[in-house]
Amino acid sequence: MDREDRSLEDFDGSTPSFRGATLRIHQEDNPTADSLATLPDSQPNNAGIWPKFLSVGRETNNLSPSEVESVSGTSRMDVAAMPCPEDHLRNLFASREGLVDQAVNDSTEAFVNFELDGDILGRYILTEINIWDAEKERLVLLTTNSLLVIKFDFIALKPLEVRRTPLLQIDTIVVGELVYPPASLVPARDMQGLRIMWNNGEPIAFSKKWNPFNNDIPFLTFASHPLLSHQDASSKEGDNQNPNMFVSYDVEKLSQQLLTAMENLQKSTKCLVQHKPILLHNYLSIGSLIHNRNSLGFFKVRGRFSF
Q1: Contacts of 103 (CB under 8 A, 6+ apart)
Q2: What is the pLDDT of residues 154-164, one digit of tens each?
Q3: What is the DSSP track for 158-181?
Q4: Dihedral sign, CA of 77, 79, 80, 83?
Q5: For the ranges 17-26, 27-36, 38-47, 231-240, which has the lowest average pLDDT?
Q6: Spatial separation of the C-alpha atoms in residues 288 and 138, rounded to whole Å
Q7: Rg (CA), the chain
Q8: Which percentage of the chain shows pLDDT scores above 90?
Q9: Among 266, 253, 260, CA closest to 225
Q10: What's the confidence (pLDDT) of residue 216?
Q11: Is-contact 151 159, C-beta < 8 A?
């Protein structure tokens, strides 16, 4: 790549003793993988990150299993949605060996009804973002007929609650960057997300949207878990001896498997898949900023206490 030499000149020539300096901007012709991981995605519509079949207005029913399989291996940069400091990640209980597998097993035994839900297709530890823009650590189980979002206590090692969404109810899937309104004072997230909706295009009633005690919100929003960037290489899907038990921290994996599951459903109406920014309605919520900044939705060690 050509190098540019920009010289500083005297402003008025009144200081003859001033000697010009040269600023050289240097960039490697062949950047390394580490340097690429720090660059923002410059591809249109994030084509290098999201599968090709996640396009605006394209229904999943138009895809054959072979098409899904052919694009599921699309190359992508293995970077976390939101990189975190090493000490923060070490304090997360989900990073401890064996706890995630135990969470999956205990939650499956407690909540999965195989006659109702069918077989388990995927297991994920993700970040759920609620309507108040608060992040929550959640275990997600995708089955043949359902999507189960589970709150698991990684400290007490017990499943607490579950939210079951039948796949037949889902009418819209949106993938794209998580963004705030233009007038929002909240710092940009710069991360990819997934929104699953079953409101048939109807707006949420005011009484439901602004009721903090209402849990009947007809959509789910997910982002990758912070541990995605530091997932041990030995636990990656290709190296796992039992891929059926693989647990992913990547929201992209969920999007791929969810669309495949939606395609296999015997559903009379098509599910709309949109590739566009996902709007988070937060203009300046001090509560959510404090909540997310201190990771209050995650189970972690906090000094002498753990919660």
Answers
A1: 94, 125, 139, 152, 154, 157, 159
A2: 999 999 999 99
A3: EEEEEEEEEGGG--EEEEEEEE--
A4: negative
A5: 38-47
A6: 17
A7: 23
A8: 48
A9: 253
A10: 86
A11: yes
Residue 52: name the closest of 60, 132, 86 by CA.
60
- Pairing mode, strands 301-302 and 305-306: antiparallel
Rounded-to-integer distance, Cα 180 and Cα 113, Å:
38
Where b means 16+ CB within 10 Å and e means fewer, 269-280 reads eebbbbbeebeb
Considering the entire predicted model, what is its pTM? 0.70
Based on the number of CB atoms within 10 Å of its own CB, is 305 exposed (0-12), middle (13-18) or buried (19 or more)? exposed
* 280 within 8 A of 180, measured Cβ to Cβ: yes
Phi-psi region of 197 (alpha: psi -120 to 50; beta: other; left: phi over 0): beta
Domains present along the chain, CATH in parentheses: 86-234+242-294 (2.30.29.30)
Considering only CA atoms, which of 112, 40, 51, 106 is closest in space to residue 79? 40
Share of residues in the chain with pLDDT > 70 (%): 64
